[in-house]
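# nightly structure sweep
# worker-07 picked up a monomer target from the shared queue
# config: single-sequence mode, recycle default, output format = structure tokens
# input follows
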Amino acid sequence: MLADLSPLIAATTQWLTRAYPAGGGALDGALCEAQARQAVTVAARLRYPTPTDAALVGIAGPGGTARLDWITGFDAHLTADEYAWRTWVDEVVASWAACLLADPALAHAAVAALAGSSHTPGSAAAFRRLLTPDELDRRAAALLRHPDLLAPVATLHHADLVHTLRPGRALTA
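# output follows
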């Protein structure tokens, strides 16, 4: 199922790392992207927990970046290529990923919820940079993990994420 969500995960990760870029060189960029990708992967698996959910978003499309760009103040003329990948960004997944990056307890709860799902198995080890970032990770993703900077995006769908993670709720759409 992850392969079905790969365009959505790649585009949403790219949007997050452009909206909240790494501060240093290539290593910082790679570490920032790894953390964003892990958060987006967890969020996408929570949002689309079954193969049917993944297939439906593949058919209908995730919605794009219009509101996210407006909230973050992005205002630029887009080339056709730039516009194309932005159509694969999922606003809810970006918001949930922002929540996970800003709140370690929520990130742990989200990964634990995946570990208990038969549809989308998760492993804490697979999400180490999200769950237990070291000093290099924190420095590389200072903007990406800053709760105040992420708040406008994170608050969009925070309540839905908390509802999805409530105890005893099965991961189905």
